Amino acid sequence: MIIKKRLVTGAAGLLAALACGLILPPTATADEPSRPSPKVELVLDVSGSMRARDVDGASRMSAAKQAFNEVLDATPEEVRLGIRTLGATYPGKDRKVGCQDSKQLYPVGHVDRTEAKAAVATLRPTGWTPIGLALRGASKDLAGDDATRRIVLITDGEDSCGRPDPCDVARELAADGTHLVVDTLGLTPDRKVREQLSCIAEATGGTYTAVQHTDELSSRIKQLVRRTAETPVQTPTGVQGAAQCAKAPELGTGLYNDRERFGEHRWYRMKVAPGKELRASVSVAADRAVDPDYGVLLRAVTPGGRELVRGSEAGSGRTDVISTGLRYPVADADDDEDTTPRTVCLELSQSFSAPAGVKRTPGLPVELAVDVVDNDEPPADVAAFGLGRGWVLLGVLAVTGLVAGLVWGWVARWRITVWRSN
């Protein structure tokens, strides 16, 4: 009965952890060094189409300026903020020149509100819409330390240059491993604009929002700037999994990112001492169009190939990310037994596929979180509650449901009998 109770308790705990999508790393302590203050850059489209007067009776440019002034007044002191423009200086028709038109209007740093507002006041709708170029420039503007980074792109149209493609640039930024998030705001309900801005946001884990009123624009930018200040920083470490466990990189506790091609299997290794528990979770992002049926599998395996426990998840339809996780405790060693840490191999595989014409490279973004914690109750068979042994929890739930149904049926019949007798 004790073992059964532990199995049920452990399974409930694991499911609660996986429901969050990611088993979180330990909370930072007061002894850890302070992180650099967060950075955010507002990237504003100043192309000629921003002259259109369809935002609360004013031009799109006027709405953006008003929103920016309100955002500057509300920017938290700890946030380092900058402003970059695209299409702000070249009014001509030379595509080559117009597609290089992006510059930093206000440098990333602690905000001098008077100076920043004066810079915004000079803007006039002018030229082209080189979104891909502006995103690359903004990424460079935010470089320099391991602070939280966020780009907020505000535009009324899709990229008018084609190269570099904004979606490809967003995937490049995601692949760099800097944990840079791009949020996009569209000032027009155009379908092509929505699709492109959604693609940019999804590739980096950001959000897309359609706005048609000045107060909506101001409110949303303020929210994103505040979110930058509130987001805890944990920059993933780049790693490249191997084709087999024997050649896999050995990981320590932390957060890692990788790229995995469609249908590929990648291996990693962990050392887990007796009396400790391995916790691992993985998220695979669909940063491009994929077929509607997909799944992800994470297995813990011995170096000899024996499966210890697995976590899996599958879905159908449109998705941005799919996640799963596992827990594996190693039993305490007796005094006369070897206390050498055990090698546990982690195998990651996914069943994503893509329609013809979709780029296969680089691979899909992978984020892997691993942790080793004390195992307070490490009976040798606790691993049975893992996702690879789901029949235990399923059996408990089935028996519980059966008993509850019988009791409820008996109570219902008793109440009917009493009612009829009265």
From TrEMBL:
Domain VWFA positions: 39-228
Keyword hit for Cell membrane: no
Keywords assigned by UniProt, alphabetized: Membrane, Signal, Transmembrane, Transmembrane helix
Stretches that traverse the bilayer: 391-411
Name of a matching Pfam family: VWA_2
Domain of life of the organism encoding this protein: Bacteria
Keyword Magnesium among UniProt keywords: no
Residues spanning the signal sequence: 1-30
PANTHER family noted in UniProt: CALCIUM-ACTIVATED CHLORIDE CHANNEL REGULATOR, ZINC FINGER (C3HC4-TYPE RING FINGER) FAMILY PROTEIN
Protein name: VWA domain-containing protein
